[in-house]
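Need a sequence for this fold. Nothing fancy.
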């Protein structure tokens, strides 16, 4: 069976997919693999393949069957055991815990005071059992299309509930049921804290990432720069790092006089321990399993290849957790490793320079990861081919050994540690500066949008054909032709869509509406939402605060392959309508920004206008009377009437006719503004009303509804917001006017997909709300 283990790995994959992802594509994949095994003309291999496939089908079905909860929504009083060191960020504590009946929960707690925070940081560790009293809450799925689905993420870890604990005391905790794994997890946590206390600020995130696999310390701007040049994988412990560490340890231990037998057994002990100390991510586990298998092969002269070791590690992974097939890290580590293993002989066979070999490896790695990056992140780094050639040797040969050297040196000779850490800090500063410069290049990142199943299949075929043609000695350009064709088709589909779309984006307590007309005739964003910040003490500040632009708008725009916004319309200068606009500047091409007259008198709007103008973006003040139109629709500003800015009642009000409906977007227009509006437009009608001021009782009077007579009303407001929006009297007024009501707080994002003949309303959470509109 030497060299044939990949057939068994395929059997495991097909079995898991048939049990967890049973659809036409899975059946096609299974058929292709089975035909390939039959072509081997090996009866024993075929029997083994079918046996393993059925074994993993049963394993997947049982895994799905076991994902059940014994709890129901409500309060819970129980002892819970912390399965990991808790994450404490500002005043928020989160951790995975298990109950007395071994069910996993995601515990969350808002810490009440600074003293409690430092006590919890010091005393709360993995393996600690605590008596708790909290409320079980169902985790929410994604409220915007293609956004991160937290509910599904937890479910795949067999976590069905969030446990929200109001009062938490360390006095109610004791050590019981602590395992060896918990011990090493706590050692890891102490190591992370030691680095944070002793290392320079610039070096700390790199040391924790490369030694312990902890990447949360990186500043958002720095981490994003590494992402955009395609080398963010170096800021984690990867298979390459494990291979290097094993090689160094093996060489050094032999040099100091140890026998190969002793070194083998020592590595068998060290590597599993380091897997826990480094966070236990899929790339690390894969590399450790493969390293141990290859060491065993060398020791006992076992008849299997490197590809067999790769396949066995894949089988072991899925045997213990079939749901790992959904893990991005698992997908990336196996796809890239697979491509490199099958391409390695071809690359090394060429009598070329080391630089050319590195270039080939970088190309293969990028292409192997491309479909996965496109599916999960909707973009990939084009300059990663070059940046990996520079950064991989630098981090592998210089930075990684330096981090381990510094970690040990801090305990041996502090003055020398200070000198070396300062030198390292300068090196990393240069590294960051180069990365940030590279990320500003025009074509650093290529946005491809969210590929559907057909496009994913075509992309994978394109990558396969590239590897095949390249192995046959074809040029890169020739080999890339199928993949270029796939991306050209994708470009046409996204650039000239037959259908248009309106999305009332769920930005929490705020407004943001995306209008994308058919055939790319116009892309308009009305407001951006924004995070409302309330004064908090320093100890309550969170290092990774939620940002509407970064966490909601940009992922949505990328998933739709929207790189350009023709008009960014900011109805007024409240933070919940334009607070996230600054996060879009420089990240998305914006042709012009339209604002209410003199709304720049408010500081936030003034800052935005200044930055936009510095980037060459046109900023225009608009009021009633201005308009534009094209083949897909017409748009008119109906309000305000004067140039004096008075807040909500000077919101830009936009009226549009497109998709077979008439629309009115009112911003935060209140009763006084509505009265002026009624006097000016006594016979205006609108099919769709964006309800003013999030459904506040200061807006949406019966007279205003009587004028417009909307068939559909959209309320954009946050779930359980502190303002009580939408107010009951407004809902009553809307119901009395016989309008269909959609709320982002109840339904998630609200979509209207249309052609010139009509369209369909649908909501993110309740598809029974789908309503078809025909002209």
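Here you go.
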């Amino acid at each position: 069976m030497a060299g044939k283990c990949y057939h068994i790995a395929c059997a495991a994959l097909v079995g898991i997919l048939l049990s967890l992802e049973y659809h036409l594509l899975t059946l096609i994949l299974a058929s292709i693999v089975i035909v390939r095994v039959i072509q081997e003309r090996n009866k024993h291999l075929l029997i083994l393949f079918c046996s393993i496939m059925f074994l993993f089908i049963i394993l997947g079905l049982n895994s799905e069957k076991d994902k059940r909860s014994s709890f129901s929504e409500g309060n819970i009083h129980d002892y819970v055991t912390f399965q990991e060191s808790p994450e404490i960020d500002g005043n928020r504590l989160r951790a995975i815990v298990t109950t007395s009946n071994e069910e996993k929960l995601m515990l969350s707690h808002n810490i009440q005071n600074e003293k409690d925070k430092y006590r919890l940081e010091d005393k709360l560790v993995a393996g600690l059992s605590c008596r708790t009293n909290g409320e079980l809450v169902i985790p929410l799925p994604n409220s915007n299309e293609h956004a991160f689905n937290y509910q599904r993420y937890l479910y795949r870890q067999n976590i069905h509930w969030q446990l929200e604990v109001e009062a938490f005391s360390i006095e109610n905790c004791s050590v019981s049921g602590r395992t060896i794994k918990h011990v090493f997890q706590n050692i890891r946590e102490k190591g992370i804290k030691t680095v944070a206390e002793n290392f320079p600020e610039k070096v700390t995130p790199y040391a924790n990432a490369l030694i312990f696999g902890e990447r949360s310390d990186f500043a958002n701007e720095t981490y994003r720069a590494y992402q955009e040049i395609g080398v963010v994988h170096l800021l984690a412990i990867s298979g390459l790092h494990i291979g290097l560490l094993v090689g160094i340890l093996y060489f050094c231990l032999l040099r100091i006089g140890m026998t190969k037998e002793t070194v083998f057994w020592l590595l068998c002990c060290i590597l599993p321990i380091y897997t826990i100390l480094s966070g236990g991510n899929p790339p690390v586990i894969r590399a450790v399993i493969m390293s141990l298998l290859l060491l065993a092969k060398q020791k006992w002269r076992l008849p299997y290849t490197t590809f067999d070791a790769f396949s066995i590690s894949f089988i072991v992974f899925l045997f213990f957790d079939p749901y790992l097939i959904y893990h991005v890290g698992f997908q990336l580590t196996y796809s890239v490793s697979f491509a490199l293993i099958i391409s390695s002989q071809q690359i090394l066979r060429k009598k070329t320079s080391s630089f050319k070999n590195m270039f080939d490896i970088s190309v293969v790695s990028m292409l192997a990861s491309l479909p996965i990056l496109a599916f999960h992140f909707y973009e990939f780094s084009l300059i990663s081919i070059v940046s990996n050639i520079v950064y991989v040797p630098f981090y592998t040969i210089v930075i990684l050994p330096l981090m381990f050297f510094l970690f040990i040196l801090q305990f041996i000779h502090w003055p020398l540690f200070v000198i070396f850490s300062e030198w390292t800090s300068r090196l990393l500063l240069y590294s960051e500066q180069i990365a940030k410069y590279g990320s500003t290049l025009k074509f650093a990142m290529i946005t491809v949008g969210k590929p559907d199943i057909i496009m994913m299949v075509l992309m994978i075929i394109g990558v396969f054909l590239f590897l095949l043609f390249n192995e046959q000695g074809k040029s890169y350009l020739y080999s890339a032709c199928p993949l270029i064709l796939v991306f050209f088709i994708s470009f046409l589909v996204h650039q000239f869509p037959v259908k248009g779309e309106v999305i009332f984006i769920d930005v929490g307590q705020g407004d943001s509406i995306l209008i994308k007309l058919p055939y790319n005739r116009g892309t308009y964003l009305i407001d951006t939402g924004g995070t409302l910040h309330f004064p908090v003490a320093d100890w309550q500040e969170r290092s990774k605060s939620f940002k509407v632009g970064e966490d909601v708008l940009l992922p949505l725009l990328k998933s739709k392959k929207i790189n350009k916004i023709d008009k960014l319309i900011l109805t007024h200068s409240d933070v919940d309508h334009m607070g996230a606009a600054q996060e879009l500047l420089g990240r998305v091409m914006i042709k012009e920004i339209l604002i209410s007259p003199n709304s720049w008198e408010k500081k936030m709007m003034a800052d935005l206008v200044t930055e936009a103008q510095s980037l060459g973006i046109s900023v225009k003040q608009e009021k009633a009377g201005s308009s534009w139109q094209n083949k897909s629709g017409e748009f008119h500003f109906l309000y305000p009437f004067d140039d004096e800015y008075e807040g909500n009642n000077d919101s830009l009000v936009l009226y549009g006719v497109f998709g077979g409906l008439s629309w009115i977007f009112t911003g935060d227009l209140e009763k006084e503004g509505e009265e002026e509006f009624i006097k000016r437009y006594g016979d205006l009608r609108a099919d769709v009303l964006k309800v003013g001021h999030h459904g506040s009782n200061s807006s949406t009077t019966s007279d205003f509804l009587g004028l417009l007579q909307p068939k559909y009303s959209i309320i954009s407001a946050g779930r359980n917001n502190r303002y009580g929006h939408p107010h009951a009297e407004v809902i009553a007024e809307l119901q009395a006017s016989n309008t269909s009501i959609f709320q982002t707080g109840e339904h998630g994002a609200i979509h209207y997909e249309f052609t010139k003949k009509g369209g369909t309303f649908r909501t993110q959470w309740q598809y029974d709300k789908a309503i078809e509109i025909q002209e």
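For context: The chain has a mean pLDDT of 91.
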